[in-house]
Amino acid sequence: MTLPTPASPAGPLPVHSRHVNAAGLDLHYLECGSGDPVLLLHGWPTSSFLYRNILPAIAAAGRRAIALDLPGFGRSSKPLDVRYSFDFYARALDGFTAALGLERLGLVVHDLGGPVGLYWACNNLPRIERLALLNTLVYPELSAAVIAFGLACMIPGLRSLLTSAAGLRFAMHLGVADKHRLQPDTIAGTQAPFRTRAARAALLKSALGLSARGLRHIATTLPSLRAPVRIIYGARDRILPDVATTMRRVARDLPQATLTELPDCGHFLQEERPQEVAALLAEFFAGPAAADGVGSNGNGSGRHH
Hints:
Elements: E1 2-3, E2 7-8, E3 11-12, E4 15-22, E5 25-32, E6 36-41, H1 55-60, E7 63-68, H2 86-99, E8 105-111, H3 113-122, E9 128-136, H4 144-152, H5 158-163, H6 165-174, H7 184-191, H8 197-206, H9 212-221, E10 229-234, H10 243-253, E11 258-262, H11 269-272, H12 274-285, E12 303-304
Parallel strand pairs: 6-7, 6-8, 8-9, 9-10, 10-11, 11-12
Antiparallel strand pairs: 1-4, 2-3, 4-5, 5-7
Helix pairs in contact: 2-3, 3-9, 6-7
């Protein structure tokens, strides 16, 4: 399947919808372009659909841009007999990258895909060629908003509402600073994978499986990363209201990071500022994969834009 995408000056850059069997799962992903790979991970309750307007720009920069539907999301398998733990996701990413032949790669993480991707990255530091963080969790010190969300996912009635079509629409509206930027097809694309009761049950399980132990592992290991790092976040994030504090801490832990704040943007910056986010990521990942710890846009000195 090929999804319609904006045309570049050189012509259209098609986004292809593909499946692969890995780690005992049917994993769906979107792919655009060729070259050294960049893997993009979404969060809750989104999917690879979140990156549909981002992939062509990264591909135009000379990269093979790949957005995965994590297990439990999108068109990937949604097993109900597993715990959606750090190790479960790590096995899925191990299998997925092996199946696609991805050795060293660029990595983009957002929301739940942040801790999932960073945990995997911390166990594969030599394979991370460049790292980009969008609005995401990183550390074990959780905000009141995140704790309240986790509790809501365990309360009968309320948890059903969270994963309903109305609840998903509310989540997307909450996640932008200007809800008028959300088109009806954006809401529909977010709701589509969760039409069945089983899919909604898997979505709830995915929100509750990550442990404090895994977050502590990230906090202690991530500062060892020597690859170039790009931080881009929407400052008006009502889902992760402490995002500015988190990103400043990341910048301290990874002094090679370049940080950009989008002041009038919310949590789902890929939807609210797709062209700006795409351009920033394309600039960061432009060109072939860098040698270990060296990148065209990361010279060991952090910058703020």
